[in-house]
């Protein structure tokens, strides 16, 4: 009966109850006119009126919303057993074995958890225990999770709270479009890596010691950034020399999303291997699951404390069954190759729009991780924040769910379920073209009116 009553509840009533019962800091998409979603399938979501929306942003439903193979795996294991990892169970070791085949050989020890935040918090603990150092270098605008330890290493958050801690050091994001060193710089890779080297040297003069360089393989909140190839290698060299380790946060971008590779850090080249990799979001296709992969040496140093690491639900049989099913679907449906094909097609269409519409300053990405940087002017590349907000609002009215990121909230971010196809890509870009054309006409009419009145 409760489920029936909830299904019959109006959007307005649901919104009123949310405002009454849920913390106001928990924000909604399109807060001025939120969408009530009651079901989803593949790359589509449906509201209470049955209207279909194309989901361009949900990288959690990695292989598609409510994929039948994932639902089946969860249901079948739930009927048999779900318990903690203190009991022997094949799903745990089988899943670790499958993940190990996707990673460089030295990343062979796994810890399973429930969320990306838990994974990044554990990675921080591992780094500090292994190096016996405290300090962490992060990229500007980074976001690594909602735990206190991770807010401290997330400039995106801490700048609005208590500020930067003494043990946190912020390096410029390696953005070659609007960063310190741009596409016309003779060697942006070395220049950005030297910024990290300088931070290390300055920390040492103050008696600080570096435990880790902690970075998303592709900065997402920072604006869908693609670091230039070779940057991580040079940074890792400086960090290792200082006695620290390199942590690659793959929580947003792992599991074949970038197309060319299974992991986004592999875009840097075969000669780069992080010391720790963290995983979350897409790993469970909507089920709470996360993982930390590391080396035997780091894991042994962590165990040497004599303090047990135990996570009640981490690595339980149901979670591991789901994780295995996600890997099966990626392989069976060739989703990594699909991400390359559809992503290249989408990038081509968007770059054609860049030629047509001056507001599009940059189109960047890999596979189905794409950012469209909207600007007010070509010379200064001023973020077109208001225009981006208007555009995603209008897209929602056309039943397309897209959102913005970046410090200027002006970068359209594409991170759809991996079943997103070429027809979807064309539909989105055609709609963006239509809306931008309408915006340009409105702007031109306003300029004419203003000129006439003066």
Task: Give the key terms.
454 residues, globular, seven-stranded mixed beta sheet
Figure out the total of helices.
Answer: 14
Structural class label = alpha/beta
Strand count, sense and barrel status of the largest sheet are: 7 strands, mixed
Number of strand elements: 15
End-to-end Cα distance:
65 Å
| Rounded mean pLDDT score | 95
Work out the helicity level.
Answer: 40-55%
The gross shape turns out to be globular
The low-confidence runs, each spanning 5 or more residues with pLDDT under 50, are: none
Proportion of residues in extended strands? 15-25%
Name the helix and strand elements from N-terminus to C-terminus, one letter apiece.
HHEEEHHEHEHHEHEHEEEHHHEEHEEEH
Radius of gyration (CA) equals 23 Å
List the helices and strands and how they pair.
Elements: H1 2-8, H2 11-21, E1 37-41, E2 44-47, E3 52-55, H3 68-80, H4 90-100, E4 109-113, H5 116-131, E5 135-139, H6 148-151, H7 155-158, E6 168-171, H8 188-205, E7 210-216, H9 231-241, E8 245-249, E9 276-279, E10 290-294, H10 296-303, H11 317-332, H12 335-356, E11 360-366, E12 369-374, H13 385-397, E13 400-401, E14 403-405, E15 411-414, H14 422-453
Parallel strand pairs: 3-13, 5-6, 5-7, 7-8, 8-9
Antiparallel strand pairs: 1-2, 2-3, 4-10, 9-10, 11-12, 12-15, 14-15
């Amino acid at each position: 009966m409760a489920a029936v009553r909830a299904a019959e509840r109006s959007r307005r009533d649901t919104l009123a109850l949310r405002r009454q019962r849920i913390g106001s800091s928990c924000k909604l998409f399109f807060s001025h006119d939120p969408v009530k979603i009651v079901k989803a399938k593949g790359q589509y979501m449906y509201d209470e009126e049955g209207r279909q929306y194309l989901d361009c942003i949900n990288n959690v439903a990695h292989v598609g919303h409510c994929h039948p193979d994932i639902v089946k795996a969860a249901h079948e294991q739930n009927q048999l057993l779900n318990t903690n990892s203190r009991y022997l169970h094949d799903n745990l070791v089988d899943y670790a074995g499958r993940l190990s085949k996707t990673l460089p050989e030295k990343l062979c020890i796994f810890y399973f958890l429930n969320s990306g935040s838990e994974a990044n918090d554990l990675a921080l603990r591992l780094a500090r225990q292994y190096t016996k150092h405290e300090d962490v270098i992060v990229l500007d605008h980074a976001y690594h999770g909602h735990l206190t330890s991770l807010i401290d290493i997330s400039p995106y958050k801490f700048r609005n709270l208590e500020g930067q801690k003494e043990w946190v050091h912020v390096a410029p994001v390696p953005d070659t479009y609007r960063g310190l060193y741009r596409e016309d710089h003779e060697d942006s890779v070395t220049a950005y890596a030297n910024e990290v080297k300088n931070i290390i040297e300055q920390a040492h003069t103050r008696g600080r010691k570096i435990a880790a360089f902690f970075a998303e393989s592709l900065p997402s909140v920072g604006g869908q950034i693609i670091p230039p190839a070779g940057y991580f290698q040079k940074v890792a060299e400086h960090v290792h020399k200082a006695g620290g380790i390199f942590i690659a946060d793959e929580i947003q971008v792992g599991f074949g999303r970038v197309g060319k590779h299974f992991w986004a850090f592999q875009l840097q080249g075969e000669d780069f291997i992080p010391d720790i990799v963290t995983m979350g979001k897409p790993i469970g296709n909507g089920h709470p699951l996360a993982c930390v992969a590391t080396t035997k040496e780091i894991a042994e140093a962590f165990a040497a404390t004599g303090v047990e690491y135990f996570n009640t639900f981490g690595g339980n049989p149901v979670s591991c069954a789901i994780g295995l099913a996600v890997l099966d679907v990626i392989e069976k449906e060739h989703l990594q190759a699909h991400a390359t094909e559809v992503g290249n097609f989408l990038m081509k269409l968007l770059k054609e729009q860049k030629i047509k519409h001056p507001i599009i300053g940059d189109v960047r990405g890999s596979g189905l991780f794409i950012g469209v940087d909207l600007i007010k002017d070509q010379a200064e590349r001023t973020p077109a924040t208001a225009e981006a907000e208007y555009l995603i609002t209008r897209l929602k009215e056309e039943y397309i769910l897209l959102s913005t990121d970046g410090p200027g909230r002006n970068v359209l971010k594409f991170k759809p379920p991996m079943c997103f196809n070429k027809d979807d890509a064309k539909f989105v870009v055609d709609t963006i073209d239509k809306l931008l054309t309408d915006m340009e006409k409105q702007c031109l009419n306003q300029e004419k009116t203003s000129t006439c009145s003066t």
